[in-house]
């Protein structure tokens, strides 16, 4: 069977494979992934350090439970969840706390559960066009180093990560700026101040896919299980 192409479908396939039901969305943002998983029948909790994001998630997905808090100190008992998910979230954890956040996710897993991590790489067309607005090179590399450190220390095991590409439809430069601003409204001012540079980069990196103009972003997916003591 071919691998699913979009990220939520990949995550749902993993959850189905391990027989998960209770899922923790770490760095849940406004609840987009939580909504997708609730609609698929999962019992979802989410946590995010931004109270405004949690408020939005509660409105968007009333069937799920959301808490304000950091990934490095999860307010849940050990073995509370069948799966924990970091979707484009680990690199937003403060650098000194990334490893602790992974250990916390492993702590709240039931035996046989998995921590699923999806991280954007510091490369690719989308990243290159975004970089003048927000250069996440170091934080993205730090997230990978944190995962490698947890594996090297023997705290977790897992198969080799899978790298795949996410095509993001962006009809024009205005659509790209709008996409960035939806994630973080402060990016709009930064983008408008560098519009000429962004226009040049957009023209250099845009490709045309089945659904029109798009910028590709490579993503990497890890599946971690707590090491048996």
From TrEMBL:
A Pfam family: Methyltransf_11
SUPFAM superfamilies in the record: S-adenosyl-L-methionine-dependent methyltransferases (SSF53335)
Domain of life: Bacteria
GO molecular function terms listed in the Swiss-Prot or TrEMBL record: S-adenosylmethionine-dependent methyltransferase activity
InterPro entries: Methyltransf_11 (IPR013216), SAM-dependent_MTases_sf (IPR029063)
Residues covered by the Methyltransferase type domain: 24-117
Cited PANTHER family: METHYLTRANSFERASE
Protein name in UniProt: Pimeloyl-CoA biosynthesis protein BioC
The organism of origin for this protein: Roseovarius mucosus DSM 17069
Organism classification: Bacteria, Pseudomonadati, Pseudomonadota, Alphaproteobacteria, Rhodobacterales
């Amino acid at each position: 069977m071919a691998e699913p192409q979009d990220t939520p479908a990949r995550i749902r396939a993993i959850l189905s494979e391990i027989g998960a039901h209770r899922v923790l969305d770490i760095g849940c943002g406004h609840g987009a992934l939580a909504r997708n998983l609730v609609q698929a029948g999962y019992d979802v909790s989410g946590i995010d350090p931004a109270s405004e994001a949690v408020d939005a998630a509660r409105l968007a997905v009333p069937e799920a439970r959301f808490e304000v808090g950091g990934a490095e100190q999860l307010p849940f008992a050990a073995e509370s969840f069948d799966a924990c998910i970091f979707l484009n979230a680990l690199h937003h954890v403060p650098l000194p706390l990334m490893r602790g956040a992974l250990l916390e996710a492993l702590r709240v897993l039931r035996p046989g559960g998995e921590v699923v991590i999806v991280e954007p790489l510091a490369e690719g067309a989308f990243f290159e066009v975004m970089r003048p607005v927000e250069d996440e090179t170091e934080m993205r590399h730090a997230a990978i180093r944190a995962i490698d450190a947890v594996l090297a220390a023997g705290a977790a095991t897992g198969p080799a990560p899978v790298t795949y590409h996410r095509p993001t439809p962006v009809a024009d430069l205005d659509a790209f700026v709008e996409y960035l601003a939806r994630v973080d409204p402060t990016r709009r001012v930064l983008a408008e101040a560098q519009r000429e540079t962004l226009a040049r980069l957009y023209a250099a990196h845009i490709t045309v896919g089945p659904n029109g103009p798009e910028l590709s972003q490579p993503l990497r997916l890890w599946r971690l299980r707590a090491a048996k003591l």
